Amino acid sequence: MAVEKPMDFPYVNLPQFINDLNLMCAMIADGPLKSFCYRRLSYLTSKFQLHVLLNELRELAAQKAVPHRDFYNIRKVDTHVHAASCMNQKHLLRFIKKMMKMHSEDHVFKQGDKLMTLEEVWRMEWVYAKQYGCFSRGFDQEFDGKVFSAMNITAYDLSVDMLDVHADRNTFHRFDKFNTKYNPVGESRLREIFLKTDNYIGGQYFAEILKEVMSDLEESKYQN
């Protein structure tokens, strides 16, 4: 690919794009079409449940008969992958715990003129959570690192449930809730430190966890 040379990809013209967009919006807002789609999806759901009741045990037996293939190492196709969500929640939890144990004194965040270590950032969240019953979500007061050390809270306190980065059924049609799942423990400051490149440490932690994910994928062929 030549540098700074535009690629000659085919695309529709603006009037055609606008016509297609208007048609799509009209279909989305059409009442009878919504009713038809709802009934159709309900029918397909019931049909699938019937299939499960009739064939579940037979399919489980067939799956067990296939060597070296399960849900985690079959071929998968995903055309919309975010690097920030390529790891599972357990992997992210292990990585955060490891960084807190091995690099707790590293300066990872700058708040105003004050540099904060990883331990200070995390204990700031805990101080605020214990006082107000929730995490800070952008709390901007100045804190003294000695206060956090006195809390005696370590990486041991972290859990998958506390991390809360798994998108569940409550995020359906709720992009606002889905977007918060990218914030470990609901805190954008931790997202900036661990899952972004434009931060004080230049994306060091993000690069390290991506390398771990890639290494795991290379060791297990086809794993997604």
From TrEMBL:
A GO cellular-component term linked to this record: cytosol
Pfam family for this entry, one: AMP_deaminase
Annotated keywords: Hydrolase, Metal-binding, Nucleotide metabolism, Zinc
Keyword Nuclease: no
tRNA-binding as UniProt keyword: no
Database matches in InterPro entries: AMPD, Metal_Hydrolase
E.C. number: 3.5.4.6
Any Gene Ontology biological process: AMP metabolic process
Pathway membership: Purine metabolism; IMP biosynthesis via salvage pathway; IMP from AMP: step 1/1
GO molecular function: AMP deaminase activity; metal ion binding
Cofactor(s) listed in the protein's UniProt record: Zn(2+)
Family: Belongs to the metallo-dependent hydrolases superfamily. Adenosine and AMP deaminases family.
Protein's name in the database: AMP deaminase
